[in-house]
Amino acid sequence: MEPDIHPELQPLAFLLGTWRGTGKGDYPTIQPFDYEEEVRFWHVGKPLLLYTQRTRTPADGQIRHSEMGYWRAVPGGRVEIVLAHPFGIVEIQEGTVEGGRIEVASTLVGLTATAKEVTRLERSFELRGSGALAYEVRMQAVGQPLQHHLSAELHREE
Amino acid sequence: MEPDIHPELQPLAFLLGTWRGTGKGDYPTIQPFDYEEEVRFWHVGKPLLLYTQRTRTPADGQIRHSEMGYWRAVPGGRVEIVLAHPFGIVEIQEGTVEGGRIEVASTLVGLTATAKEVTRLERSFELRGSGALAYEVRMQAVGQPLQHHLSAELHREE
User: Fold this and answer.
1) CB-CB: which of B66, B90, B114 is closest to A84?
2) Which of A146, A148, A44 has its CA nearest to residue B63?
3) A94 touches chain B (CB under 8 A)
4) What gap in Å lies between CA A115 and CA B82, rounded to an integer?
5) pLDDT digits (tens, 9 = 90+) for A3-26
6) FRET partner for A154 with CA separation of 20 to 30 A, picked from A64, A146, B26, B118?
7) ipTM rounded to 2 decimals
């Protein structure tokens, strides 16, 4: 049985569901690339979303990246995101949710001994209409200044 | 199509699959408790495991805790674990895998603004026979010294 949505989760409830779409990535140290993405948000009756994401290379369907974690709704229009990345990174993002717009920036990026050096991440999400979600990721990494890294537009699966 | 197991993942391959069992938790600041647990490890052809875990209260099936993240196999018998917790914690664990035994300790515990104060976690895992996995978690939190927090024994689903 699906639990009720926790009242404190309401500001983030527009994210619930499975989203698919395409995005583009670039950074000074790599070749620009396209990707296909699937994002899933679900809940278990608590004031938080469970989150998984994965991207694939369009040409061959190879899995490229993935992330997992939790999006916590905090009273007062705040959001806290805790994420793990397969390339040895943990990330805490904090910021605001207002209407269909979320703006967060990393308060912590933690690296394992063998991880690539990422020092700051900022993420923006915007609901467009009721069924499209656009996002941008800005990254400071491997000695480069904070700058655009990823953008994508996803559509909610029925 | 299931990808082949990456050769560097072999030291951790014994974890692959879905595991279920029961555990016990205690800490000076809380009442001792029992839990039911489901752990899932899978792979996508890279030298890492994807990991999700959740526990429930036996009496009513309520979801109690969950975690998600990645276990990275590092050449030389090393393992790096990156985890996110729903109560606003990210965790990096590093240590060793030797045979069916894994010993890791946190190199980083990161907290969101509203998270409970956890300062150190240590985890031990031991394969028993081919189908049982026992673990212990030791925790330093909320001003208490590092000490036993959780232990469980899980069995691999066929």
Assistant:
1) B90
2) A44
3) yes
4) 11
5) 999 999 999 999 999 999 999 999
6) A146
7) 0.94
